[in-house]
Write a structure and sequence with these properties.
- The complex is a heterodimer of chains A (about 350) and B (about 200).
- Chain A is α+β, with helices and mostly antiparallel strands.
- Chain A has 10 helices and 11 strands.
- A 9-stranded antiparallel beta sheet of chain A has the order 4-3-2-1-11-8-7-6-5, with helices on one face.
- Helices cover about 70% and strands about 0% of the residues of chain B.
- Chain B contains 10 helices and no strands.
- In chain B, helix 3 packs antiparallel against helix 4, helix 3 crosses helix 5 and helix 9 crosses helix 10.
- Chain B is globular.
- The N and C termini of chain B lie far apart (about 55 Å).
- The interface between A and B is large, with 41 and 57 residues.
């Protein structure tokens, strides 16, 4: 038996579905064919302001929001999932994972097993992410797809490529489909080159890989470090250590041992809960999550329900609230970030 | 190959795929004929790579994307399958991390999230089980482009030409990628064969 036969037999038990057994996919097509959607021209109607790149471009969206950075006037605080926001609250129905501690233990184990090579000076941390950010000054969120090659130690020129959409997802579509259809309109990539020494680098809001790698692997010591950086923020921006962890994990390449240690730090925080079936709107991926709620917003770290690999983050308003720039309704997803691919590469432009 | 059939409609023959695309340009709902013809096999292809849930979603996405690009379809290609597989494979590529995770889960835990729930999944045959894990490991280690070619060839029976058309690469590139992918899988499996042999010897 040659290798081709083996490949042919692999997962051959997966059954065949007839077209008639795929009604929702067929309906999507026939809805569109009947003119249920705006059709071409949507892209040209959309304003496409940048979310801002440059010196602070590497700071995570969550962190920038937290720190009152360049998007602060437009965005609101991070938060977690709300009822009706696509996530079941903790304790709603039988949970496959008994509690947050068990889930975070498994996540830490998965992170350690992940085998991401360690980055050396001169290497690049590659990260592909998809993000959504809600703006209080606008009814609709923006969506951002980003690929970054950041010099591990900021000794080499770094590069960020991104494409962004700010606009109105077609109203005629069901909520789940809105983002998907809308973001498929984003086409144009722009590139930002960053000179060596220009990454902020040495703080938890915008850390270089080398800085993260220098952190203590002891969860108590790491917790102390995060606490210290959190308390050095202006008071209005102190929204919890969990938010800092979510910002780093959702939007940075984190050394596997450090990622695992961060999950262990999260385990030590009071009020961390489990939620099932949490969707990350930026990609539509769904997983099991740990959540933490503060200041009217719930932040979720979302994991693959089978392997416990970290997928991304989602923050949702859990109550109606007034914010600078406008009001936010309970259930609004404020920020979501999904990791598409990450790794260590030798040069800018290379993918793992 | 299916011969061109410009007058298929008037002569009462079944229209081929290119005819269907052509008609759908004036009558969009005609495009559903392509769905009814090919959605099943495209769905199974995606499902074998990413699992049921993703397949349910991406098969819809595949046909929606195809529908939106129908004006640009080259109707000298009478069979639309390579085109549809190309779109589906691109969409699968956006989920490559998820695909890799599932191979890894099978390798580590002997449990395949993709086939979960199907009776054949649970095999008591230790050798077969071990082979599955080795295969998952080998497939997971292939580059995405090599894996695309190998699986379109092995699972979907596409020819070199059809794969080239689907992935927009030259036939020579298809051949070299396929050879490389097969060689890597063969090496991975032969290493596992020798492991079995050693185990058998030590038990014997």
């Amino acid at each position: 038996m040659d290798e081709l036969n083996h490949v042919q037999g692999f997962r051959s038990e997966v059954p065949y579905s007839t077209a008639g057994e795929l009604p929702s996919a067929r309906n999507r097509l026939t809805d569109e064919a009947r003119g249920g959607r705006g059709g071409a021209g949507l892209l040209s109607r959309l304003p496409r302001p940048s979310l801002g790149v440059g010196r602070v471009a590497t700071a995570s969206t969550l962190s920038v929001v937290l720190a009152g950075g360049l998007m602060a006037s437009q965005t609101v605080d991070i938060g977690g999932d709300a009822p009706g926001g696509g996530a079941a609250p903790a304790g709603d129905g039988p949970a496959a994972v008994a509690n947050a501690d068990v889930l975070l233990d498994r996540a830490a184990e998965a992170a350690r097993e992940d085998g991401l090579p360690s980055g050396q000076p001169g290497d690049f941390a590659y990260l592909e992410t998809k993000l959504t950010v809600h703006h209080t000054s606008r009814a609709e969120p923006s969506w951002r797809h980003e690929k970054r090659w950041l010099s591990v130690d900021d000794s080499q020129p770094s590069r960020i490529r991104h494409r962004t959409l700010v606009g109105d997802p077609p109203e005629t579509l069901p909520a789940e489909r809105k983002f998907r259809e809308w973001r498929s309109q984003a086409r144009e990539w722009s590139t930002t080159d960053i000179s060596p020494g220009q990454l902020q680098g040495r703080n938890l809001l915008s850390p270089t890989y080398a800085y993260l790698d220098s952190f203590p692997e002891d969860p108590d010591k790491l917790a102390a470090k995060i606490r210290q950086q959190h308390s050095s923020l202006p008071e209005s921006q102190r929204k919890g250590e969990f938010g800092i962890i979510a910002g780093i994990l959702g939007e940075q390449v984190v050394p596997p041992e450090m990622e695992a240690t961060m999950f262990e730090v999260a385990k030590r925080l009071d009020g961390v809960e489990v939620a099932e079936q949490v969707t990350i709107p930026a990609t539509g991926e769904r997983g099991v999550a740990v959540t933490y709620t503060t200041h009217g917003v719930r932040t979720a770290l979302v994991f693959d329900p089978d392997t416990y690999d970290f997928l991304g983050t989602r923050s949702t308003a859990v109550e109606d609230q007034q914010r600078e720039g406008g009001s936010v309704q309970a259930g609004t997803v404020l920020v979501s970030a999904a990791i598409i691919e990450e790794g260590i590469v030798d040069e800018v432009g290379q993918q793992p | 190959m299916t011969p061109p059939s410009d007058d298929a409609a008037s002569s009462g023959q079944d229209p081929d795929d290119a005819d269907v695309v052509e008609r759908s340009r004036g009558d969009p709902e005609q495009f559903a004929v392509l769905f009814d013809r090919h959605a099943g096999e495209i769905h199974r292809y995606i499902r074998r790579r990413l699992g049921r849930e993703a397949a349910d979603d991406l098969v819809g996405e595949t046909f929606l994307t195809a529908f939106r690009k129908r004006q640009r379809y080259d109707t000298t290609h009478r069979d639309a399958r390579p085109w549809l597989y190309g779109i589906a494979t691109n969409l699968v590529g956006l989920h490559r991390r998820s695909e890799a995770r599932k191979y890894r889960a099978l390798l580590r835990h002997g449990f395949d999230p993709v086939t979960e729930g199907h009776a054949d999944d649970v095999t008591s045959d230790v050798t077969a089980q071990s082979m599955r894990r080795q295969l998952a490991d080998a497939l997971g280690r292939l580059s995405t482009v090599d894996r695309d070619v190998l699986l379109l060839f092995a699972w979907q029976d596409l020819s070199y030409e059809q794969i080239g058309e689907a992935l927009d690469i030259r036939v020579g590139t298809v051949r070299s990628r396929l050879n490389r992918a097969r060689r890597k899988v063969r090496t991975a499996l032969s290493e596992s064969d020798s492991t079995f042999a050693i185990e058998e010897l030590s038990y014997g």
